[in-house]
Write a structure and sequence with these properties.
single chain, Phenylalanyl-tRNA Synthetase, Chain B, domain 3, 20 helices, 6 domains, alpha+beta, OB fold (Dihydrolipoamide Acetyltransferase, E2P), 26% helix, 798 residues, seven-stranded mixed beta sheet
Length: 798
Amino acid sequence: MLVPVKWLKEYVDIDIDSKELADRLTMSGSHVDSIENIDKGIENVVVGKILEISQHPDADKLVVTQIDVGSEKIQIVTGANNIKVGDYIPVALVGARLPGGVKIKKGKLRGIESNGMLCSAQELGIADNVVPKENKDGIFILDKEYALGQDIKEALGLYGEVIDFEITPNRPDCLSIIGMARETAATLGKTMKHLDIKINNQVDDINEHMNGITVQDKDLCYRYYAKVVKDIKIGQSPMWMQRRLMEAGVRPINNIVDITNYVMLEIGQPIHAFDLDKLSGKRIVVRRASEGEKMKTLDGVERSLDSSMLVIADESRPMAIAGVMGGEDSEVTKDTKSILIESANFNGRSVRLTSRKVSLRTEASAKYEKDLDPNLSDIACNRVCQLIEEINAGTVVSGHIDIYDGKSEERIMELSPEKANRLLGTDIEASEMVKMLNVLELKARLDGDKITASIPSFRRDLSIEADLIEEVGRIYGLDKIETQPLVGTLTKAEKTIIRQIEDKAKNILTGIGLNEITTYSFISPKQYDKLNISEDSMKRKYVEIRNPLGEDFSVMRTTLIGNMLEVMTRNYKYGVEKAWAYEIGSTFVPRELPIKELPYENRVISIGMYGNSDFFTIKGVLDTMLEKLGIKDYDYIREKNDPIFHPGRTATITLGNHVLGIIGEVHPDVLDNFGMKERVYAAELNFELIVLASNLERKYTPLPKYPSVTRDIALVIDEEVMVKEIEKIIKENSKNLVETIKLFDVYKGGQIEKGKKSVAYSIVYRSHEKTLTDEDVSKVHDKIVEKLKENLNAILRS
């Protein structure tokens, strides 16, 4: 926020230079970005008056002027076409210096002597973006008579400094000259001068000019205050007001618009003026827009509205987007005779969202979105009327309309001086703390060993005792607080079990040779098409992002497989022959659609690989990870119905009655969709279930004392019988004597009947209690063979 120091001095007696002021305000918590000197090095430029204008005899585009500069009359040749006899203008005399080091010399233009130069606003160092439109092209025409020969810097106030403050979002009270004056007074220990708002002459009655104001949506409009001014005379605002606006970074427009902008800068409350004669039915209705309703704003752009947006309407159509910008249909023009002055207070979140939806950010919306004090509305509106009366731009109508149901009252807070000193490391007297808080207008008093403060409505950032302690500290001076060593007890930090298991899983997978990847949680909805996921699949029930970076990042992922395939494909296209990767990340599943609350966030682990790998490679990776995490009794069940995976090379991983995840070869059609030419093997598991099932405890088992006995077994079984069924029967009938089971051969060929296969196992038997005899082993081994024949129709090969 740009704050001209001259303007600040109207409210606070500042007796230090701007550099020191900026330093002290920084130490009291108001961050200064920069200080700009308004004086751009102008020398010997004075006020002049045009006495005569005549055509240059040898140049159609030049005129010869006779200028009275007080001490003398001089002749100047110029090409300006916006001047006339009687105008007061800035004159750079011979020897004058202008911004940028330009020096004015006596010379001749097409044979006619010229003893100086008439100056434009830009040549006086005024930024182009704030030059009034009527002075944008041509000579700067002064607004009234000034003493001839007066230094132009004095006449226009082209001196002093402007401080640029960075105001934090929690301090909307500082987004005004008065707000910063309050901070300045507190920092310097001065008393701030307050506005004395008086309207001397009010006529008629507002009800004779207005047919009422209705606020339909009071949850979005907390207060609506309005007054009427008639007999409006549109023209230029006084030069002092124009200069203040320009120094604060605002371009002057006309007297009415300039006054509303001036008060917004001064008090911090946005104001809007409607042409009263353009309001249908002389009535205001504050309501939500209709879905698809349109209106053209002051910038000439037609905006499409929806029912979440608040508008200021008349009886037939919207006239302004509340808190953002007025409509073209109610704009104040040179023909305006009566105006309705609106000073309202709107819901900050509603203004922020509306501003974003219509892609329009204004000075008003930037203030409203921070939740302004509703008690400013009447002050600002009456200040506008006072200034209109002062510059004779209209006649104020008596009375006002004020719709304000839930008035914002002062809050009472307590502060312990002893606690404040302990936290700040200071020794400030309680009475001094009271003075500091009072200078901030917090109405503090000492009540026993406590300080009681009444918090005004403009300080919504103060809610707990620590906030008051911070106020004391910054006004005392952060630079005065001595550094103190930290005192406290250190506690040992420990990761949660989820993080411990996640770290363990990452170490295992990295040790096997996989690389960890991290991908975005938001993806393109087209990814679900590439994965061949059906329209009615739960994976299609995704969360849409309201303000996405683009279509490719517009929805939240419900699976990590798509991201993994994107990474695999990218590496393949870059010429990487082998890629093994994993990711532990979150998926997001809505509780219901449309979204009403935050979605479920599930932790998932995804594994992908291609190159020198097959189904058993990725299965071995998973088995190793699950075994090292202490997870047992999980099972693989053939899966044929997942569209992402090959129906004959895919399995669902189960753990008891729970589905742990899926593993398999990615379907060729899916690979084609991603542009992948290699086979890819992938797995996705519920990591939260892995955490619940993990057991990181390890028990010591002594080395076996007794020898083992190995028996081989070869079986002919149906081709459809899975290995796990055989191993399950062996384990169930082992009598706790089977130590290991190893499949060492699978054979299909001429010696085996069609539709059959031969499988051969090596079974190791061992007892922890005695040395096994052949009889002991044969008894168990024969039982296993018997059960295999009985349950699987297995034939023992000799």
